[in-house]
Structure formats: C-alpha cells, structure tokens
Automatic annotation (TrEMBL):
It comes from Craterilacuibacter sinensis. This is Phosphohydrolase. Pfam families: HD_5. Residues 90-286 form the HD-GYP domain. It comes from the Bacteria. CDD domains: HDc. GO terms for molecular function: phosphoric diester hydrolase activity. The lineage of its organism: Bacteria, Pseudomonadati, Pseudomonadota, Betaproteobacteria, Neisseriales.
Length: 345
C-alpha cells in the first residue's frame, strides 16, 4: 500500500489523526459523536417468504443495523461482521439469481444497511468469478459491509433528499473512507486488506477520486473492485426522489467510463456476472407481455424470464415472440416482496 496521509484541512484534522503508516484514528470529539448515535426506528415488516433468499438477506440486514449505527456499543463486532459475511456468502453461492434479484427489487427503510448488503452480495459474486481465496473474499465482503459506516446516518439522509448535498455533507462524503477505517479500527478490527479496501474505495484511475487522489498504479485492485460495486449498487437502488436505474443503462454508463476512471476488465467481468438483463429486472417482450428476469444463461442478452401469473414457469428469450424488447421499471413496495420472492422459491 502506498503511504497515505490525512488531508490537510481543518475539517479532517478536527475529526481524525494519524497513528503510524496508513493508520488513522478518531479524534476524541469524533469518537464521542459516534458514541452518541442511537439506533434508527424500524417499522418496515418483512413481507417475503420466511425461507426465501429475500427474507434471509432482510434478516442479515437487521443484524447489520446496530453494527453500522451504534458500532461502539457492539461487544464483538469483528466476529459478528465476519459471521454475517460468511452466511451471506453461503446464501449467494446457493441462490445467486435470487440474491441479484434482491439488489434490484428489495425496498429499504434505511439506505445504508441495504446498500451494504447489496454491495457485499455483488462483491462476493465478482470475487468468486475471479477465484479469490476464501480469506481474501471474506475481507472484501466485510469491507463492503462497512465502507460507509462513518457516514451511515448522513447517507440515509441524502437518500431521502432531492436537493444536492450540503457543504457539510460534501465534506463528510470526501472524508468518509478515512472515517470508516478509523471507526472500524476503534471497533478492534485490524485486518490490513479490509482497511486498505475501505480507505481506497473511492479512488479513480485518473486521480479524480478521494480522499487521496491516487493514480491508477497506486490503487489497490480489490479497492477498485469495491469502487465499481459501490457505483453499480448505487445506480440500481431507488431513492425517495427517483426510480432505480435500469440495469442496462447503469452498465452502459460504467462501460462508457472505462479506461479513464475504471478498469475495463472489471466492467467486462461485471457484465458477464450480471448479464445485460439481470435477475429481478422487469422487461417487455416482443409480444408486448411484461415479464421478470429470473435466471441468467450463457447468453448475456437472453436470460430466462417468467410471467407474473406463472412464477415457476421459465421462458427462453432467445427467439421471437419472447425476445426481450426493453427493460421497464415498475413501482415496487414492501407489500409486493412476498409475491416477487415466489419467483425464486
């Protein structure tokens, strides 16, 4: 890892300090601020079938909640985060299509924990596709779960506001990789790969990233992978003021930014992993019918779909009249999840 230094600003110096090579710690003031956080209220019920992938992911999200919002109150955060990462990995290995669908379909009450679960799901899939060893993969999944822990409440607030970020929010955004690393260190976590990935997950190849403005040669490959995962999940998730972006459009935007900001090989890996039309995407077929993508196939443009009235019947889309014409984005709420989870039960 290259030598990383704390940004030379009063905002950063009031919240963080350096404690050796690439080790950052919270200032007493910032630690007290995190210690004063309380758990947000949770009112949304889980409407999916109890044994479905959607329900398991929802339960993992619930376990993650106190670790993100009241981390300094947790007794064994390292153990619990690794347990969540392990259980999530097992689920993704067994029900990958359903887990991808959950990224596109599951509504959320609190943005930060749902985004963390989605990013952890996707980085597990991509890490498996790269044949990463189990230890490395678990560290990356844990990094995905905690990359935004330093601004959990702020990120929730921004997901609800249509206005651009305020100056204070922008300052926290630019600093949050450092805040997150320092906070998980305060929680007793010393895993070097975990910290490196969190610290660098917003750096970009052309040096325009933050907080260190690193050039391509100095950005850790695993952190760059998390950067791509973070951007992908952000585009696929809805906000209170906009619908989720269709997967095809999100992938197209990432593809257009390759070579300058992001690694084209990783974009190719992402598209091969998700497909052009990922599971969970609603599509219009050539015959005018609306279907939902349920299974990936070797043909990236022709996944299997199902009709809403027949959730267990799989339809091939490589021939007319069932070729996919275009994606469509319906309004999904929590009460629909029970019905949607049937497509992967």
């Amino acid at each position: 890892m290259p030598a990383l230094t704390l940004p030379d600003s009063l905002f950063a110096r009031n919240r963080l300090c350096e404690d050796g090579d690439n080790i950052f710690r919270l200032s007493p003031r910032q630690r007290d601020e995190y210690a004063a956080f309380v758990l947000p209220a949770c009112t949304q019920s889980n409407h999916s079938q109890a044994d479905s992938a959607f329900a398991v992911l929802s339960r993992l999200e619930g376990r993650l909640l106190p670790l993100l919002y009241t981390p300094l109150d947790c007794h064994t955060p390292n153990v619990e985060l690794r347990a969540i990462a392990s259980e999530l990995g097992q689920l993704v290995d067994q029900q990958a299509d359903a887990c991808i669908a959950s990224i596109l379909l599951s509504p959320y009450e609190h943005y930060t924990p749902r985004h963390a679960i989605n990013a952890a799901t996707l980085i597990h899939l991509l890490g498996k596709a790269q044949s990463l060893d189990a230890s490395t993969l678990q560290s990356l999944v844990c990094a995905a779960l905690t990359m935004n822990i330093g601004i959990a409440s702020t990120q929730d607030q921004m997901a609800r506001q249509a206005a651009p970020p305020t100056t204070a929010q922008q300052q926290l955004i630019k600093l949050h990789p450092l805040l997150s690393s320092a906070l998980i260190r305060e929680m007793g976590i010393t895993d070097l790969l975990w910290h490196e990935t969190v610290l660098m997950h917003h750096e970009q190849w052309n040096g325009s990233g933050y907080p260190f403005h690193l050039q391509q040669a100095n950005i850790a490959e695993h952190a760059h992978l998390l950067h791509i995962v973070d951007m992908t999940c952000s585009k696929l998730m809805p906000r209170s003021y906009r619908n989720p972006m269709p997967a095809q459009q999100a992938l197209s935007i990432l593809y257009q930014n390759q070579n300058q900001q992001i690694d084209p090989n990783l974009i190719t890996l992402l598209i091969r992993t998700l497909g052009i039309f990922p599971p969970g995407e609603f599509v219009e077929l050539d015959n005018g019918m609306i279907a939902i993508v349920v299974e990936r196939t070797d043909n990236l443009q022709a996944p299997r779909v199902a009709l809403p009235a027949h959730p267990r019947q799989r339809i091939q889309t490589d021939n007319t009249p069932y070729r996919i014409k275009r994606p469509t984005v319906p309004q999904i709420s929590a009460r629909h999840i029970h019905l949607l989870s049937r497509f992967w039960s």
